[in-house]
Amino acid sequence: MRISRRIPKFFELVWVASLVAGCAGSAGPVGPSFEVSFDPGTPRSARDQVVRVEVYLVESCTDVTLGTRPVPALGTADVLRVDGGGAFGVAFDNGDYGLYGVAQDAECAVVAAGCDAVAITGAQETLAVTLGAVRGEACPVDEFCSLETGDCLDGTGGTGGSGGEGGRVDDGLILFYAFDEGSGSTVTDQSDVLPKLDLTIADPGNVAWSTDHLEINTATALSTSGAATKVVSRAQASGELSVEAWITPANATQGGPARIISMSVDTQLRNFMLGQEADTYAARFRADGETDWDNGSPTIFTTTGTVTAALTHVVHTHNASGAEVLYVNGVEDETFTRTGGLSQWDATYPIVVANEGTNNRAWLGELHLVAVYDRALDAAEVEQNFTAGP
């Protein structure tokens, strides 16, 4: 399954949606307009998940519980995927009210909410509500969230119905390569985080396209045209990173380590790497104070024999605490604690896949999926992505 490309992300610290009440062209009084924003302290991991915002006018904020839908409400308006505005469609009497908003992710879980006191007057100004991070309930088991309506639907499409769309974890995803272009020399960054970091295949004649993967038959490099700045800025902000790959190695003998994905300029300078060393998978991660830190050392390896010429899911996670895990096919295989922060990461480095930019650490095999997250996926999330498949 592929990640949905319809789910937008928020790249600014504050997102604003204007909701103009009243019907267009009506001669009667119009309701107030509303401005919704996120508290600057709300984690980006919460803001970036939002696909739907619901806004309610209530008697007062004392009538609501953050993270739940208020009952009763005087009026409500929705914004879906920031495709446009919404409206209550009615005017309200002058007076003091509460303006309440809830922001939902693709699984209908509430990730942010807020309620602010507002006053409606004859000379109406824009009302504003600020949302902060919360965690509400998602759809019930065996139901899914419609990205068209934001409602929980049953399996027949009726309200009331199965799990999120696509099955993969979206929270914190900043790079996503599905290798499903089928032809050409470009692999598209299908994440929703700008700027896009597409890969260019240096030697298109050295690869073979399939409908759902790219086979590297002879040494080449797939790299971004410039610096992968968004990866550094987001990783430094969180202190975390996850690197994921669905691959089929050509053999269990290539090494160097052979680079599956690296953010680096040569064999000695990098921010992170996921690679293959003979019949083990290898990970490097630049951390302040470590020996040979600018090469991401020390390298950690999975157990002997984990590399085979079969479709394999490999994930490396680094937590802000320094805890690292290497997973193979959804199962924890190796752990490590790497001290030091990310202050020495170099934002000028590009992303390189299947090689180093110096073209001397080639990896051969099939690339089915490569993804990078700006946070450490937990064991359940890694298993979720493994279950979803490439």
Average predicted confidence as pLDDT:
80
Tally the helices: 3
Number of strands: 25
Q: What pattern of helices and strands is seen along the backbone?
A: EEHEEEEEEEEEEEEEHEEEEEEEEEEH
Note the beta-strand portion: 25-35%
Folded structure, characterized:
This protein has 390 residues and is mainly beta. The protein folds into two domains: 18-153, Immunoglobulin-like, CATH 2.60.40; 173-388, Jelly Rolls, CATH 2.60.120.200. It is built from three helices and 25 strands. The strands form four sheets. Strands 10, 13, 14, 16, 21, 22, 23 and 25 form an eight-stranded antiparallel beta sheet that branches. Strands 11-12-15-24-17-18-19-20 form an eight-stranded antiparallel beta sheet, with no helix packed on it. A seven-stranded mixed beta sheet has the order 1-2-7-6-5-3-4, with no helix packed on it. β21 and β22 (323-328) form a beta hairpin. Residues 1-30, 81-85 and 155-166 have low confidence and may be disordered.
